[in-house]
Amino acid sequence: MNLGGPLLLVGCGKMGGALLEGWLSRDLPPADVWIVEPNAAPLQGFIARGVHHVADAGGLPADFKPALIVFAVKPQVLAAALPAYKAYAEKGAAALSIAAGWRIAGFEDALGKSTPVVRAMPNTPAAVGRGMTVLCANAQAGAKLREICGELLAAVGETAWVDDEGLIDAVTAVSGGGPAYVFLLIECLAKAGVAAGLPEDIAMQCARVTVAGAGELVHSASEPASTLRENVTSPGGTTLEALKILMADDGLQPLMTRAIAAATARSKELG
Fold first, then answer.
1. In what order do the strands lie in the sheet with 52-54?
2. Inter-axis angle of helices 200-220 and 225-232, to 10 degrees?
3. How many CB atoms lie within 10 A of CB 250?
4. Predicted confidence (pLDDT) at residue 271 exceeds the cutoff of 90
5. Could you give the CA distance from residue 138 to residue 214 in angstroms, rounded to a whole number?
6. Model confidence over 210-267: pLDDT tens digits?
7. Is the dihedral of CA 226, 125, 265, 254 positive or negative?
8. Which pLDDT band, with edges at 50, 70 and 90, does 207 fall under?
9. Are 150 and 135 contacting, i.e. CB atoms less than 8 angstroms apart?
10. Which among 54, 164, 260, 264 has most CB atoms closer than 10 A?
């Protein structure tokens, strides 16, 4: 993984740490990585491997010239953090952001209109290498930068690109928030099992393992999800009776469609 210079990671919480672990596993030299993160305690493993750490931007070397700045701080603190990195952008550094809700224009305003910017929307399964990230870039981001950023995010899962930044709002609703919807499904499935007579612990175990197993199955299968569903559904069987309710006109699909529409609208408002 050749970036053409140092990588500066601004913020190294759960998502930043997952990304960094993925990069190091893909042979990004630790000595090429600098972290700006006030809380050093969780970073000791990275530091021991040779990654550089400073508490704030003021601690970076005077002659430091990163090739890429990855912004992985919380969106609400990004506005205050960005001005400290404008000088690096003016020296040629590109920007990659995983901050939810922050438009590319916001980075151009803070870092300079000529700054190459890539915006990415990953999700929390990146922590176990099963993330889904959708990226988009401004006109200043060339093919090489797009390739590098795609490779960086592919270290924690699958990636896709969109040309229209407006689609990131729908991505945020579908894959960004998607893990929460799946976790809710587990909760609901377990509660339904309890209502059907199962002990609470057995119901939750059945729900958790079933959803995890189904996820692994769809991940490794070449067939579409609809075919996998049909494979489980025997004519006249018990699964069919449940699906008659879930696939009814007032079943799961219209409910999910309304939920995604609401999340997409909220993402647009926040942006």
1. 52-54, 33-36, 7-10, 68-71, 94-97, 117-121, 131-137, 157-161
2. 130
3. 8
4. no
5. 37
6. 999 999 999 999 999 999 999 999 999 999 999 999 999 999 999 999 999 999 999 9
7. positive
8. very high
9. yes
10. 264
* Mean pLDDT of the region 164-191: 97
Say what the pLDDT of residue 101 is: 85
Residue 117 CA to residue 140 CA, distance in Å, equals 7
Whether the full predicted model's pTM is greater than 0.85, yes or no, is yes
- Nearest C-alpha neighbor of 94 from the set 60, 126, 64, 71: 71
Q: Tell me if 150 sits within 8 A of 22, measured CB to CB.
A: no
Q: Which residue has the tokens 């699958």?
A: 158
Q: Nearest 5 degrees, angle CA 32-CA 34-CA 89?
A: 95
| Residue 181: partners with Cβ closer than 8 Å, 6 or more residues away | 256, 259
Q: CA-to-CA distance for 94 and 24, rounded, in angstroms?
A: 20
User: In this structure, are residues 5 and 67 in contact, taking their beta carbons and an 8 Å threshold?
Assistant: yes
